[in-house]
Amino acid sequence: MTLFKFPRTVYFQxxxxxxxxxxxxKEGIKKALIVxxxxxxxxxGDRIGKALSIMETEYLTDVxxxxxxxxxxxxxxxxxxxxxxxxxxxxxxxxxxxxxxxAVAISNPQADLGAISPFESINLKxxxxxxxxxxxxxxxxxxxxxxxxxxxxxxxxxxxxxxxxDILDSSLTPVSRNIVVPTGIDAFVHSFEAIxxxxxxxxxxxxxxxxxxxxxxxxxxxxxxxxxAKDLMHLSATMAGIAFSxxxxxxxxxLGHSFGAVFHVTHGTSVGLFLIxxxxxxxxxxxxxxxxxxVSRILxxxxxxxxxxxxxxxxxxxxxxxxxRDLGIDERIYSSxxxxxxxxxxxxxxxxxxxxxxxxxxxxxxxxGNY
Length: 371
Ligand SMILES: [Fe+2]
Known about the structure:
Rossmann fold; 11% strand; 15 helices; 371 residues; 6-stranded parallel β-sheet; alpha/beta; Dehydroquinate synthase-like, alpha domain; binds fe (ii) ion; two-stranded antiparallel ribbon; 8 strands
């Protein structure tokens, strides 16, 4: 059986945050726990406070990047109440993931947060509402949750963690190119990987193809802070999120995760570096090649080669590096890390979704060729 899960309701409109109280009341939410971080609070705390003045609210405002289980347990112990109609995440991927774990913990105080699995009901007793403030991660529509246990990352998931309501307001998204580019590239790569994944379907392909087209034509405008382009980027990042969370990500994420972890490079930049080599490698599969041909035509190309050159030009136009050397990493240092990069990639769970079996030598070749 194949399952397709996404939020029950997606609201999208610029400045909709200013009507958040009315909107949530209509959804039957009278008492909410707002989860956010200091940065978001500094930028839009007044807007949120004003919009939610008609509701009973409590706040958790100290979410840090890559939240740990210890932080979640500490946050829970400081709450006045443990019953809320909704947990409302306002922020980027870390805030949304933190909120998912908080929703589990307040619903089931005995739950082991490190053992969330897709196979057991987590019996949520509160609604999850996501209000993403970046256009890229897809956490607002996915069942995944990434936490840390003090030693490393724990990537877990459960379908009950797909937020019930997703609210897309592009007025909340950043203006800094340093965030807009990598998050936009991440969404672009999510779409390609959703299409390539060996669990893709025409349902996920349709969302991913349209997201690729929209991001290709609008990321530059979003960098220049054009409202229309930012609106479209926000919506297409969510479409890409629905596509990949119901399909999968593949080799660009497996290799990009490893590269990012070793060289401390942002997620979107890292996965972007491995998109073109992944397309070339995965074109060995005739079915995947046909899918890339469709995308190539959508972008005005005619074959996989022209798709690759269109992506290269697109990357250059938005400032996404195409090769490792573009980041200024020394070749000798890079070569000395190859064994580590290959072994981390082989252990990455996303590799299981790749349409072409990628062995140790294949992965090494991609890393070497991509310098
Ligand atoms: Fe990603």
